[in-house]
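Support request from a user on the community tier.

User writes: "When I paste my structure tokens into the form, the page sometimes reloads and wipes my input. The last time it worked, I copied everything first. Here is what I submitted, just in case something in the input itself triggers the reload:"
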């Protein structure tokens, strides 16, 4: 069974003995036996660590010799297997060893300095330095695909398990070598496996090394480089500026396009993950017109990703998830590319704009809400993306509002009760995770144009209080966002019931009997004092903290002076408490 250790049938010492003869045929036979037995082995016996390290050293010595192709491949297969063991990587993480593997992978940088031997590495460094200066190690016309793939897999294993290996890979400028091959995105001699493991290696380097991330983004023009790679992987053509189509299928409606192949999806997802790494914090950096054009070009490709599907719902959702994560990294003004395609037959049109991509994002977000598990990790990227898009793009906000906050008709059901998307999001506003409830509230608040009165209307004051308190808006009003004027959205049902709606719950409630009815004044005073004493006891035991609403709309602690003032002036005068203007109900 893969990944489960079984008793070793092959004696490592016997393999070592055959390798030490130096004879290629003997070594080949021994390694092929070892590789066949250990091909699916991912856990290793601790007792043989020293033997595996010695075997690794011998294999590397062979790889620095002139080898017949079958022996070269067998050596690299052995390195791939041995590099799965994070405890036995010493032979592979020295500079000369990494340079040897890079040479066989076809990504070595042709400078003597890149392979300069470090103190204590032994004589193999000298052999490698001579071998790599000419960089004739890979025939670019007819590359040995299997050799390149095995070397790439080995380097990926080393990077995944060892920080020293990561440092050495960065020093050897492996990213430069990979980038050179990534530029050849239309060259047929590089098959799927080579392209995939080039991308996997790039992902690991950018995920694990901040310096390589910056190098790829800036020096190697990573956004353009990987954008072209994604373009080629998806077989795109460009019928119009910032408008994509599948090559050979121009004019075919999106929903009728065949699913992308498994290989296309695998490579595309690696590219999306790398782009996420190198665009992280892009929204906080300054960018010029040239950068904006690059981001828009990438955004157009990402729109195509959103509208494409894989073979299977689970794979499609994973593909879309990586796309959404990356879209969230792009500068917000450049996301207007999501709305740029012309409205075609079958498109969702709103205000004359194509809303297919926005509708897809909304559906994706609702699926994540419905799933309910790992809400923070799975939901927030799409929810934040929709929130910020709605904040900056008027058409997007209006479309989302029409879908999420349609005019209220049922005023007898609490906002958090029901199966509509509004109900689901209002329920999230009281989620146990602070980030989740804040993002859900922020999304609805933006759809309400940051109008407090409208926000309360759709969510109820009780659900809205958390965000309003954080914004200093408990007294009402509107936040500082700049929004256009819309029409009044009140339905006849809402207008008729408006005066009877409980603002805290957001619904019309049945009239409740007065609990003090029939009490004498003395009984009322007794109950009031009992309540005061109970609250005082809770306060003194630090179980509750009495608060007051300040004139700035924020909550603050009540001290003794405040209590004295409240005793003498218990009722806030109308002129001190500005009412929420009904004019804010404009949509």
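"...and here is what came back when it finally went through:"
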């Amino acid at each position: 069974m893969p990944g489960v250790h079984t008793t070793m049938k092959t004696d490592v010492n016997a393999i070592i003995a055959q390798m030490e003869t130096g004879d290629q045929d003997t070594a080949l036979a021994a390694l092929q036996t070892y590789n066949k037995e250990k091909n699916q082995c991912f856990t290793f016996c601790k007792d043989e660590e020293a033997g595996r390290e010695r075997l690794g050293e011998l294999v590397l010595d062979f790889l620095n010799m002139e080898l017949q192709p079958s022996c070269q491949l067998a050596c690299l297969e052995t390195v791939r297997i041995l590099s799965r063991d994070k405890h036995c990587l010493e032979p592979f993480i020295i500079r000369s060893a990494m340079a040897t593997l890079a040479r066989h992978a076809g990504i070595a940088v042709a400078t003597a300095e890149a392979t300069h031997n470090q103190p204590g590495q032994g004589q193999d460094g000298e052999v490698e330095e001579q071998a790599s200066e000419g960089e004739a190690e890979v025939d670019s016309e007819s590359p040995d695909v299997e050799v390149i793939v095995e070397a790439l897999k080995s380097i990926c294993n080393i990077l995944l398990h060892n920080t020293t290996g990561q440092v050495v890979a960065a020093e050897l400028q492996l990213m430069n070598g990979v980038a050179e091959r990534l530029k050849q995105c239309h060259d047929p001699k590089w098959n799927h496996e080579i392209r995939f493991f080039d991308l996997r290696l790039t992902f690991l380097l950018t995920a694990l090394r901040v310096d390589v991330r910056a190098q790829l983004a800036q020096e190697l023009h990573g956004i353009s480089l990987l954008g072209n790679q994604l373009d080629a992987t998806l077989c795109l053509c460009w019928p119009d500026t910032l408008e994509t189509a599948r090559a050979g299928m121009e004019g075919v409606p999106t929903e009728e396009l065949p699913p992308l192949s498994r290989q296309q999806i695998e490579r595309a997802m690696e590219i999306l993950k790398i782009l996420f790494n190198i665009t992280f914090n892009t929204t906080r950096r300054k960018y010029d017109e040239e950068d904006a054009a690059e981001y828009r070009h990438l955004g157009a490709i990402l729109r195509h990703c959103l509208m494409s599907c894989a073979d299977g719902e689970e794979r499609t959702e994973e593909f879309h998830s990586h796309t959404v994560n990356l879209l969230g990294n792009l500068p917000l003004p450049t996301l207007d590319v999501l709305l740029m395609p012309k409205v075609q037959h079958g498109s969702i049109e709103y205000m004359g704009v194509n809303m297919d991509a926005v509708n897809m994002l909304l559906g994706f977000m609702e699926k994540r809400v419905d799933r309910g598990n790992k809400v923070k990790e799975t939901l927030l990227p799409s929810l934040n993306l929709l929130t910020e898009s709605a904040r900056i793009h008027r058409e997007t906000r209006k479309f989302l509002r029409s879908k999420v906050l349609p005019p209220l008709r049922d005023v007898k059901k609490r906002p958090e009760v029901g199966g509509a998307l509004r109900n689901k999001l209002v329920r999230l506003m009281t989620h146990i995770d602070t980030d989740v409830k804040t993002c859900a509230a922020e999304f609805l608040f933006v759809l309400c144009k940051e109008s407090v009165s409208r926000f309360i209307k759709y969510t109820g004051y009780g659900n809205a209080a958390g965000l309003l308190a954080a914004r200093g808006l408990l007294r009402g009003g509107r936040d500082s966002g700049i929004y256009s004027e819309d029409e009044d959205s009140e339905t006849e049902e809402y207008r008729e019931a408006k005066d009877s709606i409980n603002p805290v719950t957001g619904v019309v409630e049945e009239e409740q009997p007065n609990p003090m009815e029939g009490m004498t004044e003395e009984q009322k005073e007794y109950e009031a004092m009992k309540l005061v004493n109970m609250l005082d006891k809770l306060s003194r035991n630090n179980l509750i903290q009495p608060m007051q609403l300040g004139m700035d709309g924020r909550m603050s602690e009540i001290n003794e002076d405040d209590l004295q003032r409240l005793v003498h002036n218990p009722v806030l005068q109308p002129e001190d408490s500005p009412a929420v203007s009904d004019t804010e109900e404009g949509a």
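Agent notes: The reload is a front-end session timeout and is unrelated to the input. The radius of gyration is 32 Å. Residues 1-8, 112-139, 572-587 have pLDDT under 50 and may be disordered. Escalated to web team.
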